[in-house]
Amino acid sequence: MAVLDRSLESSPAESSARVPVGSILHDWVVTADHKKLGLMYIASGLVFFLVAGVMASMMRIQLALPQNDFLGPNTFNRLMTMHGTTMVFFVGMPMFFGFANYVVPLQIGARDLAFPRLNAFGFWMFLFGGVLLYFSALGSEGLYGAGSTPDVGWFAYAPLTSRTFSRGNATDYWILGILLSSVGSTATAINLVTTVATMRCPGMTLGRMPLFVWILWVDAILVLFVLSPLTAAQVMLLFDRFLGAHFFDTQAGGSAVLWQHFFWFFGHPEVYVLILPAFAIASEVIPVFSRKPLFGYPIMVAATICIGMISMSVWVHHMFVVGLEPGANTFFAASTMAIAVPTGIKIFNWLGTMWGGRIRFRVPMLWCTAFLLEFVLAGLTGVILATVPIDWQLSDSYFVVAHFHFVLIGGLLFNIFAAIYYWFPKATGRMLDEGLGRKHFFWFVLGFNLTFLPMHVPGLLGMPRRIYTYMPGRGWDAWNLVVTIGVAVQAIGILYFLWNVISSLRDGEPAGDDPWDGWTLEWATTSPPPEYNFEEIPTVRSRRPLWDLKHPEDPDWRWE
Amino acid sequence: MNPGSPVHAIPDMFQPVSAPAEAIRQLWWLVGGISIGILLVVGGILWWCATHFRARPGEDREPPQVYGSNQIEFAWTIVPVLIVLVLFLATARTIYDVQAMVPPKDALEVTVVGHQWWWEIRYPGLGVVTANELHVPASVPGARRPTFLTLESADVIHSFWVPQLAGKTDVVPARRNRMWVEPTETGTFLGQCAEFCGTQHANMLLRVVVDSPADFAAWVEAQKRPAVADPRVAVGRAVFESTACVSCHTVAGTGADGTFGPDLTHLMSRATIASGAADNAPDRLRAWIVDPHAIKPGALMPAMKLPDDQVDAVTAYLSTLR
Ligand SMILES: [Cu+2]
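YS: structure for the whole thing
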């Protein structure tokens, strides 16, 4: 009481202006506002990203030299498992839900998601799932009673996860952490599907929905389809571990391959769940900075739906070395190659959007441009891996590691950076600094290529993934050293990014409502938008309502 | 030339010496060529856009608003479809070439059993059991002799991968996978387990020694003999036979018949120990017996805590097992 009184006396003006930290915190914890939840998803995704990035750096230090002693096998295997699990479930997923949460209601002219409280529930389930996973470091009893995080790899192949081979509770934490966050993801996906289906503003037919919304809609539907097999498999594994069931117990007639079918039936579409938001962001940023509408909108919608559907019929390409029949291998080679077609169409449409434009290479556009090139490379190594016999050589090698980091960094993360630079002004009312942004871009892209281009080579020279050490003289040494140096260069980029965010939050240039001269509805409200988003629910007549407003002489609805 | 030499230190899939690996390398030319072509085209267009359609300072008129073009969309749909079709046909052909191969009558049959973290190798037709170093005969013109492997696992999933000989095939418990190699060059080829299998996945290395047919026959003869019984190391043998070594290791011709660890009958015929984690040199062997975990942390052989003189004696004994 006394403390409180004195502070009141000493500076009444200041204390009335400053809201107590406790109440701000309370506000964020109990909020059901889609914008706050969106920002919390993105912020927690970034925190997990930094944690998993530090883990990756530690692994790279270990692998910089052959027979290095920096980490032992147990530590390495834990880091490798936690890095993968975190990046997929606690970085990629919250980024999707974060941007979907923040941007979708604004772009469809709604005041919130359909079920705001379910939205809050989804977020907290996701977050607690992540916390539970990390709590394993303290709470789980590993070998010899020592604490242990999960160490069976992020796809946790049976029977390595059985009680026989994974004693202690680390694997249980892995199962439960993901299970819990999946409940949250399912809730949020249902929410998004419903919101887009029912809450669009007057005039916004499906054909006038921004492509960003279209893609995330398809993505949310995909989440509903593919999370269930994962959840089922996790529950079966729990039964095996606790109730003596034998689904995956090969010593009692269970099947190791069954787990792989379940896991990859989730796991492959999951890659598309993660990459579709990247496509959505690129489809938003590239037109605005090229000053042209998206080329071939209907085809882009069709390609998105195709990708969503085909992605559920390619999972066996993760299993080409399991020893399946040639017929099965051939079928899944065909489906996997087929998915390259709609993906290729998208790339060409983005290029078609840039063609003939007046491209402003501001930071978001820089990221999207780099993305186009890196993603083509990722796609091509993907087609190489879909060539089954080549996959027999490259599966589970460093070539695969390089391939999917090209997809998830060059593809996804580059676009997440684009999105952060693009919508940061909307969310905070301040611009991110252009100069720091360019430095961030330069160092990160340089470091990324220095890391992951050379990483293909040791794979081609027979280096398997997930090894904590390797013998000298196999032709891998120099490549691994370069890869590790690349990580340090990436870290410079990340430091510029963090510095940019922190300093711009405090004293970035004021953004105004519409800093990029955008065309979709989020730019029609203030930055940051009020709790209710729009004073008056807007009515739209085309895909680019703000273009119509700014160019009454040549509105889009005349052409669409 | 000594059997087993030269040792090809780099497991490079672009230097295949065996039919399946050769077929894969040929596929590379097509797939790699097409990939580089596409990369150049897309990279070129992107470069053109970035240099020609960049906004110049002061130019703030909006460009012509183009919404799309069905002809163009059609073109860039049909071209990828055709490319994919070609790739698919080439892929399907190679899949069947490799997977549908039927063993000829005189093919060599070998069973490879993956263990956490070493390889058990059995030649059922020949009565030979060894570990970690697979010997196969070279296939020579006029007397082609491929080797067919049956892959089994004693515990978790492993994967058999020697890039210069063939692609990898997983070693899955409760399942018998098959693969084959047909090397045409003699020498030692390196590989390792390629599916994460626990703590020491990294040190589950493989060596395949391709012998000339004559050398292979000689090797088989030597392997079939029971262990050498050298009276000068009787002390070491007694120590070995009276400790738990025998419940995990086999030495043919003695009471040691354990199968949990590698067969030691002809330990000295191998170039490495502990699945390639160490050279098979006397000091390394001794260090291994003193404490396997100093060499391979987590390995499933316990440190036996023998007194120094017994370790010396056992090492001396094992060193006679040629
Ligand atoms: Cu293994």
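YS: worth flagging: The domain at 33-559 of chain A is CATH 1.20.210.10 (Cytochrome C Oxidase; Chain A).
IM: good catch. Also The CA atoms of residues 193 and 217 of chain A lie 6 Å apart.
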